[in-house]
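Feature request, filed as a ticket because there's no other form

It would be nice if the structure record came with a short human-readable summary line next to the tokens. Right now we just get the raw output. Example of a typical job, pasted below so the devs can see what we mean:
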Amino acid sequence: MTTKNSSSSYSVSNGSVPNDSLSPHSLPSNNPLHASGIQESALNSSLEIQLKCAELGFDWPEVTPVFDKVLEELDEIKAEVQAPVHTQEKIEDEIGDLLFAAVNLARHLKVHPEVALQKANEKFTQRFALVERFADSDNLELNKMSLDALEVLWSKAKSTLSDEKK
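Raw output as currently delivered:
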């Protein structure tokens, strides 16, 4: 990480992004996150902390080391889970570090993490609803299907939704 004197922006590999464009308070007024109070979520708190640190110059000047940090945190989770003795508290701590690093990656890539996660939730929900419909139309019970069979339905749902967007 490098330090620099900056009061309103941070550098990324493809240019400079104003901090206020990713502010937790910059969500569009019609965004459901505004009305639901989610703008005070842990993701938004992480973003706010990172924006303040970036303003003070405590930030990587480009995105490559942020990718490395995300991978490092993922490796730490894997190591903890595979350790002969581990605690749920340590795993939770490492998962928190990964999420914090992921928010940092989103910030460096000019993606609002709360909005990205909301869209991912919606996409997953749509796909799973299709999986349920496909299973129902074939008189299949999801909880009695193998993981391989479920994966086939999942792929079919992804493909169906992808075709609908074309």
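Something like this underneath would help us a lot:
Strands lie at 9-12, 15-18.
The chain is about 60% helix and 5% strand.
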